[in-house]
Specification:
Pathway: Lipid metabolism; fatty acid biosynthesis. By secondary structure, the chain is α/β, with parallel strands linked by helices. It has 17 helices and 11 strands. The protein folds into 2 domains: 420 residues, Peroxisomal Thiolase, Chain A, domain 1 (3-Layer(aba) Sandwich); 45 residues. Helix 3 packs antiparallel against helix 4 and helix 6 crosses helix 11. The protein is globular and about 95 Å long. The two termini are 27 Å apart. The relative contact order is 0.15.
Amino acid sequence: MDPRPLPELKHDSLSNIISSFLSKMLSNHLYPTPGLELLPFSALILVLVSFETLFIFQKWEPIFHILLLFCFLLFSVLGPLAFKSPSVYLVDFSCFKPPSFCKVSFSHFIEHASLIESFDSESVEFMAKILASSGLSEETYLPPGLHCIPPKTHQREYIKEAEMVLFPLMDDLLSKAKLTPCDIDILIINCSGFCPSPSLSSIIVGKYSMRSDVKSYNLSGMGCSAGAIGIDLAQNLLTTNKNSYAIVLSTEILSAGWYSGNERSMLLLNSLFRMGSAAVLLTNKKEAIKSSKYRLLRTLRTQTAFEDKAYLTAIREEDDSGKLGVTISKGLLQAAGEILRSHITILGSQIVPFSEKLKHVVSIIGKKFIDKSGEIYIPSFKTAIQHFCLPTSGRALIREIAKGLKLDERDIEASLMTLHRFGNQSSSSMWYELAYMEAKERVKKGDRVLLLGMGTGPKCNSLIWESVRPMVGESKNNPWTDCIHLYPIEAVSPNSPA
């Protein structure tokens, strides 16, 4: 079955699309908070004018005018503080380090694929080419069921894999935070390709005998961006549930997503996706600032699922033989560019400093009225963000996003090294990237970190965190513990093939 025909990205690369929309950012989003956020302030002005009009007609003493102005100024300053939502803190997080027996080298993968009867020689050769140019190392992991010939792809194996990756994560995170399962008020699990009944969240609640009133949620089918969506959901729940702890578990059950057919557009996931899971502990407790790592500053979600062409660029369906898999269409890069340009335009308008916006405006005026050959200044995200965790969907995509955001090699080092060491781990990859930065002790107090996720839909979601303390000594309990001294490596240098 051929993938559905979609227009290819012919003229503009992903980086050009991002850059062009960054240059248009100020025309649509000069101010970070449009319309609705100004509504309460407008109502306050209306009240002020109404009372002032009343005072004038009633010929009240000037002292009342002064008192009214004083009350207005006092409410303007203290009002936002009184009604401000509680801050959400990231207390700690854990990343799953698969056991060594799950490692799969290129030769091991190709040998096993060639022994699986459902694959023809052309499919094996295609997967070998994808691996060679993927940016993955020989140290990535696949679950035990996919090491078998033929692979074990049935419900019982899916449950075993879920327990293998989720239980150690919960144990490690609770141990780090010195909490018990009964201390957790909110539980969110995201897994795109496997949605059992009872749900994965119910499996965790049952395993750890959590409270009967724990608020549990299970997100499925939301792709690689689901980790960021889970954090956004947790933030919303913590806004209305005071003094609470929330755990967000992000994983992907690979044995449930294995494709055993010969459609090339469906074989990509077999070659690129690898084991990985992450657990994140959040809280809105005021005293948590003393023990937490980060404070959540902003979340943003955008999607283009309402466009048919974008919707069909990555979709789970059956091939002509009835075998289930995920079809990746040629139009995926264009769809990624479209969703990114919209997302980055809005995000940039919210976080880029006014000085950057002013430079942009001045350059536009200069180009229009003074020197038409001059270049328009593109605001730099690096003026607002110090560290970047980008989607690990491939080296080419990472470099294209970096080009559009004006990032250098050091800025994308964590993304490239995570892709190399662990592969594409779907929604949990961003946490391995953050763990890399912590292991390198690069995150200082006050630094801001952008975690960007992209998934099927298509969807683009971002989280902006601010470090509340310097990250020192974090490599001791970290998935990079045994190899951080080896990175960065030249295997993912700019000159290496993409």
